[in-house]
Amino acid sequence: MGPDGELPVTTVPGETAAVESDTTTAADLTSAPEAAAEVRELVAQSLSQYLRAWWLKVRSGDSGVLPVLLAMVVVAVTFQIITPQHSFLRPSNLVYIFGLSTVYMVLAIAETVVLLLAEIDLSVGAVALIGGVIAFKLAQSWPWWAAILAALAACGVFGALQGILTARLKIPSFVVTLAGFLLFSGILIVVLGGADGSVNLDTSKFNQLVIYDLVQGVIPPVTSWVLLAVVVGAVGTTLWLRAARRRRQGLVAPPASVTAIRIALVALVGVAVVAICNVNRGTALKSVQGVPWVIPIVLVVLGIWTLVLGRTRFGRYLYAIGGNPEAARRAGVSLAGIRTWAFALCSATAGLGGILLGAFFFGQYSTNTADPGQLVLYTVAAAVIGGVSLFGGRGKALHGVLGGLLIGGIAYGVSLLNLGSLSTPLQYILPGAVLLAAVLIDVLSRRGAGSVTRV
Amino acid sequence: MSDVTSDSSQAPAGATDATTVADLTAAHEAAADVPPELVAQSLGQYLRAWWARVRGGDSGVLPVVLAIVVVAISFQIANPKFLSAQNLVNLFEQSSIYMLLAIAEIFALLLGEIDLSVGLVMGLGSVVVAELVQPTGANWPWWAAIIVTLLACCAVGAIQGMLVARLRMPSFIVTLGGLLILEGVAIIVLGGGLVGIGNSQYKNELVLYNIFWGAFTPLVSWILLAVIVGATGTGLWLRDARKRRSGLETPPRSLTALKIVLMAVAGIALVVICNVNRAHVGTIKGVPYIIAIVLIVLGASTVLLQRTRFGRYVYAIGGNPEAARRAGVRLPTIRIWCFVISALISGIAGVLFASWQVSLTTNIIKAANSYVLLAVAAAVIGGTSLFGGRGKTIHGVLGGLVIGGIYNGLYLQGVSSQWIDVVVAAVLLAAAAIDVLSRRGAPGQA
Asked: What pTM, to 2 d.p., does this model score?
């Protein structure tokens, strides 16, 4: 671990001395080789230096979102070539894939919270479905927001119970949540009212229509553009001002060019998404265009979890426990408390995923809507493919979103292929193979990176 | 360990008791390593030592035997049919699958690993064996079909074992991904339709069918019982006698006799129950073949784990992998073999499963997945630790009986399947909690 990780550091600063501060940085880097492994990018002062530092980090095993982005390109190109009529990348399909992936994205974010602790939650699928069913049932008589909040609270309680068993009694989390999976799958059928029970949203009632529209509703094209401008403007200004403030106060900050590139990338992705969504994807009789509501909803979930994981004490503690529980304990972190909260928040987030899942299936919930076991496997696969480590301490909410999109894309691409009798078995084989491949990469990259855990 | 052994073996026969007591006190530290039963010289002393061990946290089969009694009494009160000979045989038959899968799971648990794919290895095995004997398809003889099925299952176990042992991927992820792939493969082999082995015109299908549904005749049952009890009893007695002659530590003679008597009583009870006519129409009597199959697997795996170097290494790795590695144990090899054996026993369960279900469909294969939870629950309820290094295959058999009893009893009460799942989940959690708490209480344990 030691030499491999440290060697590149000493070679970095020796090369260029364009800016004044470079020499200082070089001195800093050499004097603190251990810290440098984690802050190389932070201390970079020019774009090229930043990119070199990033590349070194990728090569040393911490590849971030790079593999999942590459995998998305490969998957998109492959399916575009092999699908009949090369239909995979049609705007209507892309929007559908996003809707299908929503549940995987939200569940993968939820799973990431627990994976950061080096624990696992195998019950997210069953908990999500219960959350969806509770919200749908309550929306029959309650206002939509109360129904959703009550469902999330119920899921949070389920999660907290599992968290207590894991954190206080120290029963391995995969056993607790395996039993939880079985338990909640049973309760799900009971809540649904028996093996052939179901619950449907009546879209003629306002409160039920709101929940239905979470996924099925669209923002009109013009509003979509306006919203995009507002979002990009707000995010861009915040990023820019934050970097500028750090620079002013003499803290390490990425070079201004990096901040600008980041903002440009956000704008570019946003424009592409809105442009794709604004293509008419309806039929000749009824036009459908605009950004589905579910996209801003997923962005809000992503934003909240990114803030919680990156900017709060709770988030810091999650990474600390995942990186080294004993060190975290000695630093005064209440392991059991943080763990219990992580499980509770994971389950509550999963409940939201379940509500979106039901809305995606046109507001209908029956025992056949989704298989909780398959759901959890897709979820873990999505998180791990996205770049979250199974061994704790490494991962971001964004990884869950990208991994979920990849899994949704694969699932939908296979369904486009008209494979006949092979399509059912492939629904099992593909996520299994993808999960194993993702974990294999995780294991090998950790081996390459040594035991250093990165935030 | 060695000094305890040599001390007491030098003691003259008449004075054994006093010396042993002195030894027990003197070698207080060593006693933590040497089971006190080994140095006990009388039945009373043995029972006292055993009780001390139970209180120290290593309760062995005691909780599961208590659980069996509780399950039996409560369901008997709820429904007087529960302990009828007819239902008991039914219960043994259902439990046989749980027992085999639990034994399979124990090979992974002893290492401190887990195998979540046992349910679908069984599912795949059942589909393969049924497809291979189809007269319109492969039309293989039954024995060839079974051998190839078991080999295929071993190959699956070897692949998963290599991913776990060589690449050090977490076993629960490898076997989670593995079970998904196996589910897909099993559905492909099934070909989307239905495959049955219930046509008695064809000899190969009939043999497969009879593996689960056939039984020894009552007379043969008695003879077999006599042979087994005679052989095992003589074996136990002679071994103890030889150990005593060679001056090794031996449990008291009365204990050996007690063990043999208990075995005979249990065997006689089993044969008597099975020899009651259990058919609604006509006659079905005798011990089902599957009881013999479970006993053979139990016996073979017990010998493998308790009496061979391989078994010692399995416990060593489960107890402390680093210590085992430094002692020269090749961890990857032993781990791979454990996964192979686990898959082999799951494959045997698969042959039984095909025979039990008679015809297999996609839905039955999907349902096979839920058996893994029951297998883990059975093993843990039986007294196997989730953390490795503690457990015996007899635990799987007893735990399987508890799970089978709960299923059977709730089913008799007309409880719907989702509530049965809830109860089993609760039992699994309770068993895991007891495992964790008992480890915490046990001295010298991590």
From this structure: 0.79
